[in-house]
């Protein structure tokens, strides 16, 4: 086709076509659509799941210092989440 494409090593996510036992695969495409779809659709789900886990650890902390630690982690994580969603 004469179009310049991209080639990259990609992690195989659940539900993607893959060979048995394959965790990574080489992708060759003109436009890297899968990475854009992953970022738009799957990454927010991962972040929300991790935010919930952090919140649970904060809420179930054994003492005040541990609760403060997890509150700081939660605050920092939310800042990064907001920067990535811009």
Structural class, from secondary structure content?
alpha+beta
Q: Which geometry do the CA atoms define?
A: elongated
**Total number of helices:** 2
**Fraction in beta strands:** 5-15%
The count of DSSP E runs of length 2 or more, i.e. the number of strands, is 2
Strand order of the largest sheet: 1-2
Q: Helix and strand string, N-terminal first?
A: EEHH
Separation of the first and last Cα atoms: 35 Å
Helix content class: 55-70%
Sheet with most strands: 2 strands, antiparallel
The rounded Rg comes to 18 Å
Instruction: Identify low-pLDDT runs.
Output: none
Kindly give the count of domains. 1
Mean pLDDT: 83
Keyword list:
2 strands, alpha+beta, 86 residues, single chain, 2 helices, two-stranded antiparallel ribbon
Task: Explain this structure.
Helix 1 packs antiparallel against helix 2 (64-84). The protein has a two-stranded antiparallel ribbon. The protein is elongated, with a radius of gyration of 18 Å. The protein has helices at 33-59, 64-84; strands at 6-11, 24-29. The protein has one domain. The protein is built from two helices and two strands. With 86 residues, the protein is α+β, with helices and mostly antiparallel strands.
Question: What is the strand and helix layout of this fold?
Answer:
Blueprint (H helix, E strand, L loop, with lengths): L5 E6 L12 E6 L3 H27 L4 H21 L2
Antiparallel strand pairs: 1-2
In short:
This protein is α+β, with helices and mostly antiparallel strands and 86 residues long.
């Amino acid at each position: 086709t004469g179009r310049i494409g991209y080639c990259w090593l990609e992690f195989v996510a659940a539900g993607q076509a893959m060979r048995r036992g394959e965790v990574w695969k080489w992708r060759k495409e003109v436009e890297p659509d899968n990475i854009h779809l992953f970022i738009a659709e799957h990454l927010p789900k991962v972040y929300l799941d991790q935010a919930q886990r952090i919140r649970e650890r904060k809420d179930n902390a054994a003492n005040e210092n541990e609760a403060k630690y997890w509150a700081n982690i939660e605050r920092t994580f939310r800042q990064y989440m907001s920067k990535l969603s811009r």
